[in-house]
Amino acid sequence: MAEINLLKNPSGNASTWQTAASVLVKVLVFLAVGVVAYYVFLYFKLESAKDEVVMVENNIVENKKAALNMPGREELLSRQLQLKEFAAVTAGHAYYSKFLPALAKVTLKNAYFTNISLNNQGKMSMQAVVPTLLDLDKFLQVFNDPLVSSNFYNVRLGGFTKAEDQNGPVYTFNIQLDFNPAILAGGQ
Known about the structure:
alpha+beta, 5 helices
């Protein structure tokens, strides 16, 4: 009589498929366990982050309370408001004190100015005094310099007179000129 072996599979292809299916099931089970472990890790990490958020929020509330109860807070707030208002006022202010040093850089040391009148649109008139006509010529040549003419231009003379001073004769003249209004700006 012939023996029947029910345990052995005579086909080789079926055995390969069974092995592949077994490996695939094991990999899927391993991935499923990994995903569950990852979600457990994320859950505990989220709880830890929530605890940190609560702690930071409590610190913020405590710091707000401390700031509101700080001694001298009202004085500090009023001074800050005054500084803001001062900054707004000075932002549009023309700094005429910056004009004279700019003019002094381009004129002679022995010339002096009287009756200065200027506005923030860039127009100026003044009376100047020099000791000699040579100094007057040097004074006017300064305005021809390209570095100077970018800020001071359209120079006009008038009212030229010779007078006596305690140091001798002096020449007085009126000057009208245009200047760069940026010289008067506070940030310059």
